[in-house]
Amino acid sequence: MTSTRKLLKICAVGAIAMALAGCSSVAKTILAPQPDITKFYLLTPTAGGATAAPAAATSAGGEFAIGLGPIKLPPYLDRQEVVTRAAPNRLELSKDARWGESLQNGFTSVMARDLAAQAGTGQVIIFPWYNTVHVDLQVQIEVYRFETDGNGNAQLSAKWTILDSTGKNILYTVESDLTQPSKPGDITDAAAALSRTIGDLSGQIANMIHQLRSQPAAHPA
Q1: How far apart are CA 49 and CA 148, in angstroms?
Q2: Among candidate residues 124, 108, 111, 93, the one with its CA nearest the CA of residue 46
Q3: Residue 217: what pLDDT?
Q4: What are the backbone angles phi and psi of residue 98, rounded to the nearest 5°?
Q5: Angle between helix 103-119 and 187-213 (nearest 10)
Q6: Cis, bond preceding 75 (omega within 30 deg of 0)
Q7: Rounded to 5 degrees, what angle do the CA atoms 61, 67, 71 make?
Q8: pLDDT at 221
Q9: Bridge partner list, 72
Q10: Rounded to an integer, what is the distance from CA 97 to the centroid of its chain?
Q11: Burial class (CB within 10 angstroms; exposed 0-12, middle 13-18, buried 19+) of 47
Q12: What is the mean pLDDT of residues 36-60?
């Protein structure tokens, strides 16, 4: 074997060795554990500093009690991924942003705390409750939409109804469309904006409760 052939053979072996080493390195990189980039978010109450409710909000027999629920969210929100409405008829699910709890539970909890602060009562009882529990008014909410759009606008659309203590007679019902701005693509800011829309909705409900409580003939204490 000539020196040239020997040199070519050595080069070929070296090339094969380098290729195998490269493949091994790539395989290790692909198969190595990947860092978890998932982030988790929560809704938060916004009415902690709300002023006390008028005296009419407290019944003579004790603290005024509000029954909250049922609260219904649309099925497309029954998931852990954060949803963005990219277009009127198109939704996008985040690849790495998740809710830290079910959106149903988070929405209900925040609404209860905001409503308690804005209505001036510590008695907000979440549905379902026992038949032996007395509520002065019942608030039902059906949410149509609760997400941010591509521009970062947080939108809450819902129909809410206030019923009497029996839960059979409607005292007031209306639909609300609420919007709060946030930074596009910033999920932390979006979660805060969505929280503010809940606070806005609870404010509307609390204001109507105050009006109803100021009309003894319509709803005696």
Answers
A1: 25
A2: 111
A3: 54
A4: -130, 150
A5: 40
A6: no
A7: 170
A8: 38
A9: 142
A10: 12
A11: buried
A12: 64
Q: Which of 1-10, 60-69, 114-123 has the highest mean pLDDT?
A: 114-123
Residue 125: is its pLDDT beyond 90? yes
Long-range contacts of 33-37 (CB under 8 A, 24+ apart): 37/96
Is 53:211 a contact under the CB 8 Å cutoff? Answer: no
**Under 8 Å CB-to-CB from 220, ≥6 apart: which residues?**
none
Tokens 């379902």 belong to: 128
Mean pLDDT, residues 164-172: 95
Contact criterion met (CB below 8 Å) for 115 and 139: yes
């003894």: which residue's tokens? Answer: 216
pLDDT average, residue stretch 25-41:
68
Distance CA 128, CA 141 (A): 14
Q: How many residues does the chain have?
A: 221
In the DSSP assignment, the letter for residue 33 is P
3-state SS, residue 129:
coil
